[in-house]
Amino acid sequence: MSAQAPVLELKDIVKTFPGVIALDHVSLDILPGEVHALMGENGAGKSTLMKVLGGIYQPDEGDILVAGEKTILRTPLEAKGKGIVFIHQELSLAEELSVAENIYMGELPRKSLGRVDWSKLFSDVDEILGRLNCNFNAQTIVGDLSIANQQMVEIARALTVEATTVIFDEPTASLTDAEKVVLFDIIEDLKSRGVGIVYISHRMEEIFKISDRISVLRDGEYRGTLKASDTNQDELTQLMIGRSLEHTRPDLSQSNGDVALEVKGLSCGKLFHDVSFKVHAGEVVGFYGLVGAGRTEVAETIFGMRNKSSGEIFLNGEKVEINSPADAIAHGISLVPEDRKGQGLVLGMNCRDNMTLPQIDDLTVSGLTAPQSEQEIFKKYRDQLEIKTPNWKQTVGNLSGGNQQKIVIGKWLSMHPNLLIVDEPTRGIDVGSKSEIHNLIRELAGQGYAIIVISSEMPEILSVSDKIVAMFHGEIVHTFTSSNVTEDKLVQAISGIYEPENAA
Amino acid sequence: MAQSHLKAVGEILAKHGILVAFILFMIAFALLNPRFINSDNLLGVVRSSAILGVMAIGVTFVVVSGNLDLSVGSMMSFSTIVVLDLHDKLGPLLGIPAMFAMTMALGALIGFLVGYLKLNSLIVTLGMLSAIHGLTLTYSGGKNMDIADKDGTWFGFFGQGELLGVPVPILMFALLAAGLTLVLSKTPFGRKVYAVGGNGVAATFSGIPRARIVFYCYLISSFCVAMAGLIQASRSLGSQNTVGQGLELQVLAAVILGGASLLGGSGTIFKTVIGVLILGFIQNGLLLVGLEFYVQYIVTWVIIILAVWLDIAAKRGQLWSPIA
Question: Do B188 and A343 touch (CB under 8 A)?
């Protein structure tokens, strides 16, 4: 095939925000019929670049060329009009409306007097859904669909226009393996019709499976474009983070500390029942299970966010009653919650104030807050966790996901907890920060912290835990030690089909 | 080039927009009517803004915590009527604290409903606006309330007196502003108010008792209302049952004009005070320029809309954007 004219070109795009250069002369070209992967750590500028493409941000400098023509994209609708379509990572669907209304939102087919042509709408949409092999129809209410099916609705939306470029932002984050296969088929189909595809993902296997070329961004700068067939994971990783990752699994400490937390027969309504386990000082206990298995609920109950219906909690051998997060904090329990933006941070508040929030009552001089002590805490954890922020005044909402997560971790480390619970420590965080956070968790265990890690990612659970508690349907199925666990056994356990060979 | 200039202007506006507006506004009126910047006139405006200001300071706490308080107008009527009645029945020395207790009991009720029962503050306080009005009328039997012996009491001190040449209402306004600025910006409690308003769930996950914080904010608001009622009663030594009617909207206007977000989590006492003064000077300026007093209602609205728009525009660096 001869060289084709790109469907979309970005030339020397610059975008700055107060105090940050988000994009520094970034150029990119998307060819028809190719899958062009875009990689980079969180904060590298991927999202900003995509928002420029989507007409949400205007670049300070540089040109956007659609089919060779210089174009200004003022709104998302204009971008769509030029054939640039987004499949968002965070779904942007109206949950109360039907699938069809979501798909044709803003451009519903009309009859006379401006009335909606419902029959045309539903038949058009059913046709598209048929092409995608969806098991729901045009009139289904979006809120009733699973997350994966909602993603399909987003994809269906992209198919309604004559797209020249389709941008997928972390499309597989919430898909099952079977659903991924369908997605990849759809991408192949789009490819064969000459559509250019931008594919953003942190998952290397996927990138190598489907992409033709791979472009890498780092700190807002363009680091190069590679052919997928000519490169490998190590080279890519190095481009992304500017150094090579250590592949060794961290040294697991032999836990011989005292029992820091003991939970006996803990139950909470229908969410989970009769949960018992121990966490020693210097030990990481991983909680693994499917979404809804009760892992997060156990953590929230220990932290006092939920009221237990029965059971006992012992900290350092003493029975404790925990009725509120304040009680839990007073007993030295810290929780890094799963939803960073919703539960972990006050996004409109600055970095320092977020970090000192749980202990603000103790940071006072004659009743008034003590900025000096607050500053010290902020600086200490900013340096220790290598948080990238221009200064303490920076609004947390402006930081990248990885740095936001570090603020939450710093917030709880600064409390010097007896027990640290970390729920989904690396959700939505890039490769580089991910291994940093894993190393940090091991390091903290080495310092004697008792830690619970809850995760949906098996590699994560396997690499950080000394012990793994597998949950299924609100019950603990089995507790594995790091020496006798295998991936097979874990999968069986969380699916409720595990049978220990020699039950003791 | 022009873009970067615009950006710089935008950044200044974002930080100090309300102050810039205030200064421009004062200059405009001063040019239109030199009497406007006469010190008697200026002092007069501040003095007549004191009641609104005292209430707005309290409502700032409620708004920063992410809630609304539309009951302050009718609550102020209640305080005024009650303190005038108790003045004659118990004497001012007992009557004043009794009135504070009764007003703050109303604040505590709202705080309980919004904080602990988590009811929507708009509905609760809109309902309280009406309910407290009814309560006031029941208390007074629908009649105006007057102090019997207007010449023989020292009660007029709070509304009419002077201390070191400064009118007492201004003094009370200033002291309250200074004291509560300290509370909101320099105490752990204040920090928690911002956290609860900014993200109540995250605040809870940080061990902050959200319900209690909201409860205290309404208590502070009702304390300020009681103070406003005291000034009002003391100024006229008699009152109708509807003296505070409509004030809730002016108070809210001042708080918004000061730049507090109705979504919670932002706003300061200082900015609210500026907002109060702007409202006061607009009303005064319009009168001096020779417009009828009712024109102020329309002009006030236009200025608030402009203020809110400029505030958002400055924050995103664009006058208009497809996303919020």
Answer: no
Q: A262 and A232 in one domain? A: no
CA distances A451 to A289, A384, A417, A448, A468, Å, are 17, 19, 10, 9, 12
Domain boundary among A364, A383, A416: A416
The reply to whether A333 touches chain B by the CB within 8 Å rule is: no
Task: Please tell me which of the candidates B186, B209, B323 has its beta carbon nearest to residue A369.
Answer: B186
Query: Is residue B78 in a domain?
Result: yes
- Taking an 8 Å cut-off on Cβ atoms, the answer to whether B191 and A18 are in contact is no
Residue with tokens 């998952």: A203
Rounded CA separation B231/B157 (Å): 9
Domain of residue B200, residue span? 23-316
Q: Are residues A434 and A392 in the same domain?
A: no
Our count of domains for chain B comes to 1
Question: Do the domain assignments include residue A124?
Answer: yes
Q: For A368, which residue in chain B has the nearest alpha carbon?
A: B187
- Residue B280 to residue B150: CA distance in whole angstroms: 29
* pLDDT, mean of each 10-residue run, chain A (504 residues): 77 82 90 92 80 88 90 86 81 87 86 89 91 86 82 81 85 72 85 90 83 90 89 82 54 67 93 93 91 88 94 94 94 93 93 95 92 94 89 89 90 93 85 82 90 88 91 90 81 76 48
User: Distance (Å, rounded) from C-alpha A20 to C-alpha A22?
Assistant: 6
Cα(A269)–Cα(A303) distance, integer angstroms: 16
Residue in B215, B177, B77, B318 with CA at minimum distance from that of residue A60? B318
**Which residues partner with A167 through β-bridges?**
A86, A198
B200-251 pLDDT tens trace: 999 999 999 999 999 999 999 999 999 999 999 999 999 999 999 989 989 9
Contact A106, A161 (CB under 8 A): no
User: A104 and A24, same structural domain?
Assistant: yes
Please tell me if residue A323 touches chain B, with a CB cutoff of 8 Å.
no
Beta bridge partners of A454: A287, A423
Cα atoms in the Cβ-side hemisphere of radius 13 Å centred on B35? 10
Nearest CA to A442 out of A456, A455, A460 is that of A460
Domain end: A366, A393, A416, which one? A416
Contact B81, B139 (CB under 8 A): yes
Out of B190, B205, B208, name the one closest to residue A337 (CB): B205
User: Measured at the alpha carbon of residue A207, what is the angle toward residues A227 and A243, in degrees to the nearest 5?
Assistant: 75
Q: Are A342 and B199 a contacting pair at CB < 8 A? A: yes
Q: Which residues of B touch A337 (CB under 8 A)?
A: 205
